[in-house]
Amino acid sequence: MTMLVGRRVLLVEDESLVAMLAEDMLLDLGCEVDVAMRLDKALGLARSEAFDLAVLDVNLGDARSYPVADLLFGRGIPFLFATGYGQRGLEVNYRGIPVLQKPYQAEPLEHLLVRLLTGEASLRGGGRDLPPSCRCQDTHGGGTRFRADRAS
User: Fold this and answer.
1) How far apart are the C-alpha atoms of 143 and 44, rounded to whole Å?
2) Do the Cβ atoms of 117 and 78 come closer than 8 Å?
3) CB 49, CB 87: distance < 8 Å
4) Where are the domains of the chain?
5) Three-state DSSP class for 55?
6) Whole-structure pTM value
7) CATH for 8-150, among 3.40.50.2300, 3.40.50.2000, 3.40.50.410, 2.102.10.10?
């Protein structure tokens, strides 16, 4: 059993197929998932619901998910950003937040969520001086294993 079983996760992703894929991965990890595909819905959920974790796509059509990140930060709810652009795709104020490289993959997603829960990359301790995000890389030439390296 993983420590993610029963954890409530806010998933903010505006692409329906990508959202379904990420939701399935989270469900397979035993999480309870609330999906928001628009900024207004994500803000409403972030304000009013209790979550253990959140996964935020940075770009939501014309908007960015930073207002949701700010709400979660204020509530002490750990979160990560999902983007295909890595840390360089984030505004400067958010570059300390862990990043999951898109496209979503189950093992790196689980790895980063566990890091958030164990406090290794937690926002609960205060401040945005978090450890750098991981670059999860295949260590066996095409296998399913990965190695978490510190991002540069």
Assistant:
1) 40
2) yes
3) no
4) 8-150
5) strand
6) 0.80
7) 3.40.50.2300
Burial of 92 (0-12, 13-18, 19+ CB in 10 A): exposed
Amino acid at 30: G
pLDDT per residue as tens digits for the range 74-118: 999 999 999 988 888 899 889 889 999 999 999 999 999 999 998
For residues 12 and 55, the answer to whether their CB atoms sit within 8 Å is: yes
**What would the two tokens of residue 66 be?**
């930073």
The pLDDT confidence band at residue 140, using thresholds 50, 70 and 90, is very low
Determine contact, residues 111/147, Cβ cutoff 8 Å. no
Burial class of residue 31, CB neighbours in 10 A (0-12, 13-18, 19+): buried
Amino acid (1-letter code) at residue 45: L
How far is residue 107 from each of residues 54, 80, 121, measured CA to CA in Å? 16, 15, 17
